[in-house]
Amino acid sequence: MNPAQSQPEKLDSPKYDLARLAACGADVFISANVEIRRPHLLRVGSHIAIDSGFYCTTGATLGDYIHIGPYVTVIGGAPARLEMAGFNTIGAGNRVLCASDEFLGAGLVGMSPPEFRDTVCVEPVIFEAFASTGTNVVIHPGVTLAEGSVIGSCSLVTRSTEPWTIYRGVPARPWKKRPSEKMIEAARKLGYGPFAAQEKSD
Fold first, then answer.
1. Taking a C-beta distance cutoff of 8 angstroms, is the pair 59, 78 a contact?
2. Rounded CA separation 23/61 (Å)
3. Strands of 10-141, DSSP E
4. What is the chain's pLDDT, residue by residue, as a tens digit (202 residues)?
5. Which is nearest to 161 in space by CA: 144, 175, 178?
6. What's the DSSP call for residue 151?
7. How distant, in Å, are the alpha carbons of 7, 11, 12, 58, 109 from that of 2?
């Protein structure tokens, strides 16, 4: 093998100013080509990659080992939140709605004055550990992706999921179970959370 091939690839991409964030761990790459409207509300852990085109208007807390693919949108404004526990991926082109007008005729939508506004649903979107999504997934407010659940590409998620289950479709429905053993064992070896604690007590 060529010695150069055994070295990790070094990407020379412009980077976001991490000092703008509320908190930031180690080994974090955020593309310079992102729009984070409220960086003071964004806290990120370690081993994070956020690709070009990320657009975020909400607060967010990201654990460790998370990848957010290109052109992901997270919207809802200052009161809304995205929470990711760790070991998660959001696929390219996802739309994560942490707040939305209900559009049921209770008032006007868009940039209307507050006294004339429609009812707005503001509920966090939560990714529990090991939960991930494929490309072009849409997630509605208040959805919790349970531990280890995965959403297939081009699915619409309107309800919270069951652990270690693969979902797909519009709306997303359970497809089949996902094995957990190798992922949990890897997290244990990395010394993370309840997985590490469980190993010590065995």
1. yes
2. 9
3. 23-24, 28-30, 35-36, 42-44, 48-50, 55-56, 59-68, 73-75, 81-90, 95-97, 99-101, 120-122, 125-127, 132-133, 138-139
4. 455 555 556 667 899 999 999 999 999 999 999 999 999 999 999 999 999 999 999 999 999 999 999 999 999 999 999 999 999 999 999 999 999 888 888 888 888 888 888 888 889 999 999 999 999 999 999 999 999 999 999 999 999 999 999 999 999 999 999 999 999 999 988 888 666 544 444 4
5. 144
6. E
7. 10, 19, 22, 45, 59
Q: How far apart are CA 170 and CA 154, in angstroms?
A: 8
Please state, in angstroms and rounded to a whole number, the distance separating the CA atoms of residues 24 and 161: 29
> Could you give the 3-state DSSP secondary structure of residue 176?
strand
200: left (phi over 0), alpha (psi -120 to 50) or beta: alpha
Two structure tokens written together for 150: 């995965």
CA dist., res. 114 & res. 100, Å (int): 14
d(CA 20, CA 130): 27
Amino acid residing at 108 = L
